[in-house]
Amino acid sequence: MLNAESDHLAAFIAKMTSAGLQPVVMDTFAWYYHKVVTGEKGFIYNRDIRPVETQDIADSATFAPYADMGEKMMPQAVMIVLNGGLGTSMGLTGAKSLLPARNGKTFLEIIVRQAGRQHVRLAFMNSFNTHAETVEALKRLHPEPFPLIFVQNKFPKILRSDFSPASWPRQPDLEWNPPGHGDIYTALYTSGILEQLLADGIQYAFIANSDNLGATLDPSLLGYFAEKSLPFMMEVSIRKPVDIKGGHLAVHKNGHLILREAAQCTEDEIGVSRDITRYRYFNTNNIWINLKRLKAVFDRHGVIHLPMILNPKTLDPRDCSSPGVYQIETAMGSAISLVEGATAVVVPRSRFYPVKKCNELLVIRSDRFMYSDQNGLAANPKRRGTQIEVDLDPQYYTLIDAFDARFPFGPPSLAACESLRVSGNVFFGKNIILKGDVVIQHAGDIPGYVPDNEVVEGTLCI
Protein backbone atom coordinates (compact mmCIF):
# COMPACT_ATOMS: atom_id res chain seq x y z
CA MET A 1 0.00 0.00 0.00
CA LEU A 2 2.85 2.38 0.83
CA ASN A 3 4.41 1.98 -2.64
CA ALA A 4 0.99 2.42 -4.25
CA GLU A 5 0.41 5.51 -2.13
CA SER A 6 3.76 6.95 -3.18
CA ASP A 7 3.17 6.21 -6.89
CA HIS A 8 -0.35 7.61 -6.87
CA LEU A 9 0.63 10.65 -4.82
CA ALA A 10 3.29 11.49 -7.40
CA ALA A 11 0.56 11.38 -10.07
CA PHE A 12 -1.66 13.64 -7.97
CA ILE A 13 1.17 16.13 -7.42
CA ALA A 14 1.94 16.19 -11.14
CA LYS A 15 -1.73 16.81 -11.92
CA MET A 16 -1.99 19.62 -9.37
CA THR A 17 1.26 21.17 -10.62
CA SER A 18 -0.10 21.19 -14.18
CA ALA A 19 -3.23 22.93 -12.88
CA GLY A 20 -1.11 25.71 -11.38
CA LEU A 21 -1.90 24.97 -7.72
CA GLN A 22 0.56 26.29 -5.16
CA PRO A 23 2.84 24.06 -3.06
CA VAL A 24 0.92 24.73 0.16
CA VAL A 25 -2.24 23.36 -1.50
CA MET A 26 -0.39 20.24 -2.68
CA ASP A 27 1.13 19.71 0.77
CA THR A 28 -2.31 20.02 2.33
CA PHE A 29 -3.82 17.51 -0.11
CA ALA A 30 -0.94 15.07 0.48
CA TRP A 31 -1.57 15.20 4.25
CA TYR A 32 -5.24 14.30 3.78
CA TYR A 33 -4.48 11.73 1.08
CA HIS A 34 -2.29 9.77 3.48
CA LYS A 35 -5.22 9.61 5.89
CA VAL A 36 -7.50 8.31 3.14
CA VAL A 37 -5.22 5.49 1.96
CA THR A 38 -4.53 4.39 5.53
CA GLY A 39 -8.25 3.97 6.16
CA GLU A 40 -9.09 7.07 8.13
CA LYS A 41 -12.67 8.27 7.66
CA GLY A 42 -12.62 11.50 9.65
CA PHE A 43 -15.17 10.27 12.22
CA ILE A 44 -15.68 12.05 15.55
CA TYR A 45 -16.98 9.64 18.18
CA ASN A 46 -19.48 10.21 20.98
CA ARG A 47 -16.98 8.88 23.50
CA ASP A 48 -14.67 11.82 22.77
CA ILE A 49 -17.18 14.66 23.16
CA ARG A 50 -19.86 16.00 25.47
CA PRO A 51 -22.77 18.41 24.94
CA VAL A 52 -22.22 22.16 25.24
CA GLU A 53 -23.61 23.71 28.44
CA THR A 54 -24.89 27.30 28.63
CA GLN A 55 -21.87 28.33 30.69
CA ASP A 56 -19.51 27.17 27.92
CA ILE A 57 -20.47 29.95 25.49
CA ALA A 58 -21.68 33.56 25.60
CA ASP A 59 -25.07 34.84 24.42
CA SER A 60 -25.13 37.77 21.98
CA ALA A 61 -28.34 39.00 23.62
CA THR A 62 -26.02 40.65 26.18
CA PHE A 63 -23.73 42.30 23.60
CA ALA A 64 -25.50 45.66 23.15
CA PRO A 65 -22.80 47.49 25.22
CA TYR A 66 -20.20 46.45 22.63
CA ALA A 67 -21.98 48.13 19.69
CA ASP A 68 -20.09 51.44 20.06
CA MET A 69 -16.78 49.62 19.98
CA GLY A 70 -17.98 47.73 16.89
CA GLU A 71 -18.84 50.96 15.07
CA LYS A 72 -15.31 52.23 15.76
CA MET A 73 -13.82 48.98 14.42
CA MET A 74 -15.83 48.98 11.17
CA PRO A 75 -12.97 50.53 9.14
CA GLN A 76 -10.80 47.61 10.29
CA ALA A 77 -13.31 44.93 9.26
CA VAL A 78 -14.15 43.04 6.09
CA MET A 79 -17.11 40.83 5.21
CA ILE A 80 -16.01 37.79 3.19
CA VAL A 81 -18.81 36.07 1.31
CA LEU A 82 -18.52 32.38 0.40
CA ASN A 83 -19.78 32.33 -3.16
CA GLY A 84 -18.79 28.94 -4.52
CA GLY A 85 -22.20 27.27 -4.63
CA LEU A 86 -23.88 26.36 -7.92
CA GLY A 87 -27.29 25.54 -6.47
CA THR A 88 -27.37 22.19 -8.27
CA SER A 89 -29.97 20.86 -5.81
CA MET A 90 -32.33 23.51 -7.25
CA GLY A 91 -31.48 22.70 -10.85
CA LEU A 92 -29.21 25.71 -11.30
CA THR A 93 -26.14 25.55 -13.51
CA GLY A 94 -24.64 28.86 -12.37
CA ALA A 95 -23.85 30.66 -9.14
CA LYS A 96 -26.74 30.46 -6.68
CA SER A 97 -26.04 34.05 -5.63
CA LEU A 98 -27.27 35.21 -9.06
CA LEU A 99 -30.76 33.80 -8.40
CA PRO A 100 -33.45 36.47 -7.79
CA ALA A 101 -34.21 36.58 -4.06
CA ARG A 102 -36.40 39.65 -3.43
CA ASN A 103 -37.99 42.38 -5.54
CA GLY A 104 -36.19 41.08 -8.63
CA LYS A 105 -32.82 41.55 -6.92
CA THR A 106 -30.35 38.68 -6.70
CA PHE A 107 -28.64 37.50 -3.53
CA LEU A 108 -25.47 39.11 -4.85
CA GLU A 109 -27.09 42.49 -5.38
CA ILE A 110 -28.71 42.48 -1.93
CA ILE A 111 -25.39 41.61 -0.30
CA VAL A 112 -23.59 44.40 -2.18
CA ARG A 113 -26.27 46.94 -1.23
CA GLN A 114 -26.25 45.86 2.44
CA ALA A 115 -22.48 46.26 2.61
CA GLY A 116 -22.69 49.63 0.90
CA ARG A 117 -25.19 50.95 3.45
CA GLN A 118 -22.89 49.90 6.29
CA HIS A 119 -19.75 51.14 4.50
CA VAL A 120 -18.31 47.67 5.02
CA ARG A 121 -15.36 46.36 3.01
CA LEU A 122 -16.53 43.39 0.95
CA ALA A 123 -14.73 40.34 -0.48
CA PHE A 124 -15.96 37.25 -2.33
CA MET A 125 -14.44 33.78 -2.37
CA ASN A 126 -15.65 32.17 -5.60
CA SER A 127 -15.14 28.63 -6.81
CA PHE A 128 -13.69 27.80 -10.20
CA ASN A 129 -17.32 27.21 -11.26
CA THR A 130 -18.73 30.60 -10.17
CA HIS A 131 -15.85 33.02 -10.65
CA ALA A 132 -16.31 34.35 -14.18
CA GLU A 133 -20.06 35.02 -14.03
CA THR A 134 -19.80 36.57 -10.57
CA VAL A 135 -17.15 39.02 -11.76
CA GLU A 136 -19.35 40.00 -14.69
CA ALA A 137 -22.39 40.44 -12.43
CA LEU A 138 -20.40 42.65 -10.04
CA LYS A 139 -19.22 44.82 -12.92
CA ARG A 140 -22.85 45.44 -13.84
CA LEU A 141 -23.62 46.49 -10.25
CA HIS A 142 -20.74 49.03 -10.14
CA PRO A 143 -20.12 48.75 -6.37
CA GLU A 144 -17.84 51.37 -4.83
CA PRO A 145 -15.30 50.33 -3.80
CA PHE A 146 -15.18 47.21 -5.97
CA PRO A 147 -15.05 44.06 -3.79
CA LEU A 148 -11.92 42.00 -3.44
CA ILE A 149 -12.30 38.70 -5.28
CA PHE A 150 -10.35 35.47 -4.99
CA VAL A 151 -10.90 31.86 -6.03
CA GLN A 152 -10.83 28.92 -3.69
CA ASN A 153 -8.48 26.06 -4.45
CA LYS A 154 -9.45 22.66 -5.82
CA PHE A 155 -8.56 19.08 -4.98
CA PRO A 156 -8.39 16.16 -7.42
CA LYS A 157 -11.00 13.44 -6.90
CA ILE A 158 -9.71 10.05 -5.74
CA LEU A 159 -10.90 6.79 -7.30
CA ARG A 160 -12.31 4.57 -4.57
CA SER A 161 -11.19 1.42 -6.39
CA ASP A 162 -7.43 1.98 -6.15
CA PHE A 163 -6.88 5.51 -4.72
CA SER A 164 -5.51 6.81 -8.03
CA PRO A 165 -6.43 10.16 -9.63
CA ALA A 166 -9.87 10.15 -11.22
CA SER A 167 -9.90 10.60 -15.00
CA TRP A 168 -12.92 11.75 -17.04
CA PRO A 169 -11.69 12.97 -20.47
CA ARG A 170 -15.20 13.74 -21.72
CA GLN A 171 -15.53 16.42 -19.01
CA PRO A 172 -12.15 17.05 -17.30
CA ASP A 173 -13.58 19.63 -14.88
CA LEU A 174 -15.39 16.78 -13.12
CA GLU A 175 -12.01 15.33 -12.09
CA TRP A 176 -11.81 18.10 -9.46
CA ASN A 177 -13.86 19.10 -6.45
CA PRO A 178 -13.96 22.27 -4.34
CA PRO A 179 -12.40 21.28 -1.01
CA GLY A 180 -15.23 22.72 1.08
CA HIS A 181 -15.43 26.13 2.70
CA GLY A 182 -12.64 25.10 5.07
CA ASP A 183 -10.34 26.09 2.21
CA ILE A 184 -11.09 29.76 3.02
CA TYR A 185 -7.99 30.06 5.20
CA THR A 186 -5.56 28.59 2.67
CA ALA A 187 -7.21 30.48 -0.20
CA LEU A 188 -6.87 33.79 1.65
CA TYR A 189 -3.19 33.03 2.13
CA THR A 190 -2.32 31.69 -1.33
CA SER A 191 -4.29 34.40 -3.19
CA GLY A 192 -2.42 37.23 -1.47
CA ILE A 193 -5.71 38.64 -0.16
CA LEU A 194 -4.67 38.05 3.46
CA GLU A 195 -1.53 40.15 2.99
CA GLN A 196 -3.48 42.83 1.12
CA LEU A 197 -6.14 43.15 3.81
CA LEU A 198 -3.55 43.42 6.57
CA ALA A 199 -1.61 46.00 4.57
CA ASP A 200 -4.84 48.00 4.27
CA GLY A 201 -5.31 47.98 8.05
CA ILE A 202 -8.03 45.31 8.05
CA GLN A 203 -7.75 43.06 11.10
CA TYR A 204 -11.21 41.50 11.56
CA ALA A 205 -13.04 39.31 9.06
CA PHE A 206 -16.67 38.22 9.18
CA ILE A 207 -17.35 35.25 6.89
CA ALA A 208 -20.79 34.07 5.76
CA ASN A 209 -22.53 32.16 2.97
CA SER A 210 -23.95 34.05 -0.01
CA ASP A 211 -27.34 32.30 0.40
CA ASN A 212 -27.78 33.57 3.98
CA LEU A 213 -29.15 37.10 3.76
CA GLY A 214 -29.55 37.26 7.54
CA ALA A 215 -25.78 37.39 7.90
CA THR A 216 -24.71 41.02 8.11
CA LEU A 217 -21.70 42.55 9.83
CA ASP A 218 -23.29 43.32 13.20
CA PRO A 219 -21.50 46.05 15.22
CA SER A 220 -22.23 44.47 18.62
CA LEU A 221 -20.71 41.15 17.55
CA LEU A 222 -17.71 42.91 16.01
CA GLY A 223 -17.28 44.99 19.16
CA TYR A 224 -17.35 41.90 21.39
CA PHE A 225 -14.89 40.07 19.12
CA ALA A 226 -12.48 43.02 19.12
CA GLU A 227 -12.85 43.92 22.82
CA LYS A 228 -12.13 40.34 23.92
CA SER A 229 -9.16 40.03 21.50
CA LEU A 230 -10.53 36.72 20.25
CA PRO A 231 -8.75 34.80 17.46
CA PHE A 232 -11.86 32.93 16.22
CA MET A 233 -15.59 33.08 16.96
CA MET A 234 -18.41 30.94 15.61
CA GLU A 235 -22.04 32.05 15.64
CA VAL A 236 -24.33 29.23 16.77
CA SER A 237 -28.07 29.04 17.28
CA ILE A 238 -30.55 26.75 19.02
CA ARG A 239 -31.29 23.63 16.98
CA LYS A 240 -34.83 22.98 15.82
CA PRO A 241 -36.22 19.72 14.37
CA VAL A 242 -35.51 21.08 10.89
CA ASP A 243 -31.78 21.22 11.77
CA ILE A 244 -31.28 17.56 12.70
CA LYS A 245 -29.42 16.65 9.51
CA GLY A 246 -26.76 19.31 9.96
CA GLY A 247 -23.72 19.46 12.20
CA HIS A 248 -23.62 20.44 15.85
CA LEU A 249 -21.33 22.02 18.41
CA ALA A 250 -19.81 19.93 21.20
CA VAL A 251 -16.97 20.01 23.73
CA HIS A 252 -14.05 17.68 23.08
CA LYS A 253 -12.53 15.74 25.96
CA ASN A 254 -9.48 18.00 25.66
CA GLY A 255 -11.70 20.94 26.67
CA HIS A 256 -11.86 22.61 23.24
CA LEU A 257 -15.09 23.32 21.45
CA ILE A 258 -15.50 21.11 18.40
CA LEU A 259 -17.79 21.05 15.36
CA ARG A 260 -19.10 17.65 14.28
CA GLU A 261 -20.67 17.48 10.82
CA ALA A 262 -23.15 14.75 9.89
CA ALA A 263 -20.54 13.20 7.56
CA GLN A 264 -18.23 12.79 10.57
CA CYS A 265 -20.69 10.53 12.43
CA THR A 266 -20.67 6.75 12.20
CA GLU A 267 -23.92 5.09 11.19
CA ASP A 268 -24.60 3.82 14.70
CA GLU A 269 -24.02 7.28 16.22
CA ILE A 270 -25.91 9.46 13.72
CA GLY A 271 -29.11 9.12 15.76
CA VAL A 272 -27.50 10.51 18.90
CA SER A 273 -25.97 13.40 16.94
CA ARG A 274 -29.48 14.37 15.80
CA ASP A 275 -30.82 14.59 19.35
CA ILE A 276 -31.49 18.32 19.62
CA THR A 277 -32.13 18.09 23.35
CA ARG A 278 -28.60 16.73 23.86
CA TYR A 279 -26.64 18.66 21.23
CA ARG A 280 -28.53 21.96 21.35
CA TYR A 281 -26.42 24.23 19.16
CA PHE A 282 -25.71 24.24 15.43
CA ASN A 283 -23.18 26.21 13.42
CA THR A 284 -24.79 28.99 11.36
CA ASN A 285 -21.58 29.16 9.28
CA ASN A 286 -21.18 32.79 10.31
CA ILE A 287 -17.55 32.96 11.41
CA TRP A 288 -15.31 35.72 12.76
CA ILE A 289 -11.52 35.52 12.47
CA ASN A 290 -8.64 37.77 13.50
CA LEU A 291 -6.55 38.11 10.36
CA LYS A 292 -3.33 38.91 12.25
CA ARG A 293 -3.70 35.68 14.22
CA LEU A 294 -4.42 33.75 11.02
CA LYS A 295 -1.29 35.14 9.39
CA ALA A 296 0.74 34.11 12.46
CA VAL A 297 -0.48 30.51 12.08
CA PHE A 298 0.71 30.36 8.47
CA ASP A 299 4.01 32.02 9.38
CA ARG A 300 4.53 29.42 12.11
CA HIS A 301 3.26 26.24 10.46
CA GLY A 302 2.97 26.93 6.72
CA VAL A 303 -0.33 25.02 6.45
CA ILE A 304 -3.59 24.56 8.33
CA HIS A 305 -4.88 21.00 8.76
CA LEU A 306 -8.57 21.01 9.60
CA PRO A 307 -10.46 17.82 10.50
CA MET A 308 -11.15 15.87 7.32
CA ILE A 309 -14.58 15.21 5.82
CA LEU A 310 -14.43 12.28 3.39
CA ASN A 311 -17.36 12.29 0.97
CA PRO A 312 -17.98 9.22 -1.21
CA LYS A 313 -19.52 10.32 -4.51
CA THR A 314 -19.77 9.30 -8.14
CA LEU A 315 -17.28 10.99 -10.45
CA ASP A 316 -20.10 12.57 -12.46
CA PRO A 317 -22.76 13.56 -9.90
CA ARG A 318 -25.42 13.30 -12.62
CA ASP A 319 -24.35 9.81 -13.71
CA CYS A 320 -24.74 7.15 -11.03
CA SER A 321 -22.93 4.63 -13.29
CA SER A 322 -19.74 6.73 -13.31
CA PRO A 323 -16.83 5.52 -11.13
CA GLY A 324 -16.99 5.92 -7.36
CA VAL A 325 -14.69 8.59 -5.98
CA TYR A 326 -13.71 10.16 -2.70
CA GLN A 327 -13.86 13.93 -2.30
CA ILE A 328 -11.68 15.40 0.44
CA GLU A 329 -13.41 18.37 2.03
CA THR A 330 -13.16 20.44 5.20
CA ALA A 331 -15.53 22.71 7.10
CA MET A 332 -14.58 26.29 7.91
CA GLY A 333 -16.07 26.07 11.38
CA SER A 334 -13.97 23.07 12.36
CA ALA A 335 -11.07 25.46 13.02
CA ILE A 336 -12.76 26.10 16.37
CA SER A 337 -11.16 22.90 17.70
CA LEU A 338 -7.64 23.91 16.61
CA VAL A 339 -7.33 27.59 17.52
CA GLU A 340 -6.34 28.31 21.10
CA GLY A 341 -8.84 30.72 22.61
CA ALA A 342 -11.52 30.08 19.97
CA THR A 343 -15.11 30.43 21.15
CA ALA A 344 -18.74 30.39 20.05
CA VAL A 345 -21.62 32.76 20.74
CA VAL A 346 -25.35 32.16 20.61
CA VAL A 347 -27.12 34.38 18.09
CA PRO A 348 -30.81 34.76 17.24
CA ARG A 349 -32.26 32.72 14.42
CA SER A 350 -32.74 35.96 12.49
CA ARG A 351 -29.05 35.78 11.53
CA PHE A 352 -29.67 32.49 9.75
CA TYR A 353 -31.90 32.50 6.65
CA PRO A 354 -30.17 29.94 4.42
CA VAL A 355 -31.68 29.06 1.06
CA LYS A 356 -30.68 25.51 0.17
CA LYS A 357 -33.87 24.46 -1.63
CA CYS A 358 -36.92 26.03 -3.23
CA ASN A 359 -38.76 25.53 0.10
CA GLU A 360 -36.61 28.21 1.72
CA LEU A 361 -36.67 30.40 -1.39
CA LEU A 362 -40.47 30.60 -1.16
CA VAL A 363 -40.18 31.90 2.41
CA ILE A 364 -37.50 34.49 1.56
CA ARG A 365 -39.60 35.79 -1.33
CA SER A 366 -42.79 35.92 0.75
CA ASP A 367 -44.21 38.56 3.09
CA ARG A 368 -42.59 36.89 6.09
CA PHE A 369 -39.77 39.25 5.17
CA MET A 370 -39.61 42.88 4.14
CA TYR A 371 -37.04 44.42 1.83
CA SER A 372 -36.10 47.94 0.88
CA ASP A 373 -32.95 49.40 -0.63
CA GLN A 374 -32.65 51.65 2.43
CA ASN A 375 -33.05 48.99 5.15
CA GLY A 376 -32.23 45.71 3.41
CA LEU A 377 -33.87 42.43 4.34
CA ALA A 378 -35.69 42.19 7.67
CA ALA A 379 -38.23 39.89 9.28
CA ASN A 380 -41.82 41.09 9.05
CA PRO A 381 -42.78 42.04 12.63
CA LYS A 382 -46.37 41.01 11.84
CA ARG A 383 -45.47 37.43 10.95
CA ARG A 384 -46.83 34.64 13.12
CA GLY A 385 -43.98 32.93 14.97
CA THR A 386 -40.29 33.12 14.20
CA GLN A 387 -40.15 29.84 12.27
CA ILE A 388 -42.16 28.34 9.45
CA GLU A 389 -41.70 24.86 8.02
CA VAL A 390 -42.37 24.54 4.30
CA ASP A 391 -42.52 21.18 2.53
CA LEU A 392 -43.22 21.41 -1.20
CA ASP A 393 -43.73 18.21 -3.20
CA PRO A 394 -40.22 17.41 -4.52
CA GLN A 395 -41.62 15.90 -7.71
CA TYR A 396 -42.96 19.28 -8.82
CA TYR A 397 -41.05 21.95 -6.89
CA THR A 398 -37.41 20.84 -6.67
CA LEU A 399 -36.14 22.57 -9.82
CA ILE A 400 -36.25 26.35 -9.99
CA ASP A 401 -38.01 26.54 -13.35
CA ALA A 402 -40.82 24.24 -12.19
CA PHE A 403 -41.03 26.12 -8.90
CA ASP A 404 -41.33 29.53 -10.58
CA ALA A 405 -43.95 28.23 -13.01
CA ARG A 406 -46.22 27.20 -10.12
CA PHE A 407 -46.12 30.67 -8.56
CA PRO A 408 -46.65 32.86 -11.66
CA PHE A 409 -47.91 35.79 -9.55
CA GLY A 410 -45.34 35.42 -6.79
CA PRO A 411 -45.61 33.68 -3.41
CA PRO A 412 -48.84 33.53 -1.42
CA SER A 413 -48.98 35.48 1.84
CA LEU A 414 -47.19 33.46 4.54
CA ALA A 415 -47.17 36.10 7.30
CA ALA A 416 -49.93 34.29 9.21
CA CYS A 417 -48.82 30.81 8.17
CA GLU A 418 -47.07 28.50 10.65
CA SER A 419 -46.43 25.54 8.35
CA LEU A 420 -47.13 24.64 4.74
CA ARG A 421 -47.18 21.25 3.05
CA VAL A 422 -48.05 20.93 -0.63
CA SER A 423 -48.62 17.48 -2.11
CA GLY A 424 -49.15 17.15 -5.84
CA ASN A 425 -48.95 19.28 -8.99
CA VAL A 426 -50.44 22.50 -7.61
CA PHE A 427 -50.37 25.96 -9.22
CA PHE A 428 -51.09 29.13 -7.22
CA GLY A 429 -53.17 32.13 -8.32
CA LYS A 430 -52.71 35.71 -7.14
CA ASN A 431 -53.56 37.36 -3.80
CA ILE A 432 -53.66 34.05 -1.91
CA ILE A 433 -53.43 34.11 1.90
CA LEU A 434 -52.35 31.06 3.92
CA LYS A 435 -53.07 30.94 7.66
CA GLY A 436 -52.00 28.61 10.45
CA ASP A 437 -50.97 25.06 9.56
CA VAL A 438 -51.85 24.58 5.90
CA VAL A 439 -51.93 21.35 3.89
CA ILE A 440 -52.77 21.51 0.16
CA GLN A 441 -53.34 18.18 -1.59
CA HIS A 442 -53.92 17.27 -5.22
CA ALA A 443 -53.79 13.85 -6.90
CA GLY A 444 -52.80 13.09 -10.49
CA ASP A 445 -50.49 14.75 -12.99
CA ILE A 446 -53.14 17.11 -14.33
CA PRO A 447 -52.49 20.45 -12.58
CA GLY A 448 -54.63 21.59 -9.69
CA TYR A 449 -55.15 25.29 -8.94
CA VAL A 450 -55.51 27.41 -5.83
CA PRO A 451 -57.76 30.18 -7.20
CA ASP A 452 -57.13 33.91 -6.98
CA ASN A 453 -57.99 35.67 -3.69
CA GLU A 454 -58.33 32.37 -1.78
CA VAL A 455 -57.80 32.32 2.00
CA VAL A 456 -56.63 28.86 3.04
CA GLU A 457 -56.67 27.52 6.60
CA GLY A 458 -56.21 23.85 7.50
CA THR A 459 -56.41 21.26 4.71
CA LEU A 460 -57.43 22.06 1.13
CA CYS A 461 -58.04 19.22 -1.33
CA ILE A 462 -58.26 20.31 -4.95
In whole angstroms, the N-to-C terminal distance is 62 Å
Number of strands: 26
Work out the helicity level. 25-40%
Shape: globular
Please name the CATH architecture of the largest domain. Answer: Alpha-Beta Complex
For the biggest sheet, the summary is:
8 strands, mixed
The main sheet orders its strands as 2-18-12-15-11-3-6-7
CATH topology of the largest domain: Spore Coat Polysaccharide Biosynthesis Protein SpsA, Chain A
CATH superfamily of the largest domain: Spore Coat Polysaccharide Biosynthesis Protein SpsA, Chain A
Runs in which pLDDT lies below 50 for 5 or more consecutive residues are none
> What share of the residues does DSSP label as strand, in percent?
25-35%
* SSE class: alpha/beta
- CATH C-level class of the largest domain: Alpha Beta
Number of domains: 2
Provide mean pLDDT, rounded. 94
- Rg for CA atoms: 23 Å
Separate helix tally: 13
How does this model look, in words?
It is a single chain. The N and C termini lie far apart (62 Å). Strands 2-18-12-15-11-3-6-7 form an 8-stranded mixed beta sheet, sandwiched between helices. The protein has helices spanning 2-18, 23-37, 67-73, 107-118, 131-141, 184-191, 193-199, 219-227, 270-273, 291-301, 358-365, 394-397, 400-406, and strands spanning 49-50, 58-59, 77-83, 100-102, 105-106, 121-126, 148-151, 155-156, 158-159, 176-177, 204-209, 232-238, 248-252, 257-260, 281-290, 309-314, 324-329, 343-346, 369-372, 376-379, 389-392, 413-423, 426-428, 433-441, 448-450, 455-461. By secondary structure, the protein is α/β, with parallel strands linked by helices. It contains 13 helices and 26 strands. Strand 13 (248-252) and strand 14 (257-260) form a beta hairpin. The chain folds into 2 domains: 2-351, Spore Coat Polysaccharide Biosynthesis Protein SpsA, Chain A, CATH 3.90.550.10; 358-461, UDP N-Acetylglucosamine Acyltransferase, domain 1 (3 Solenoid).
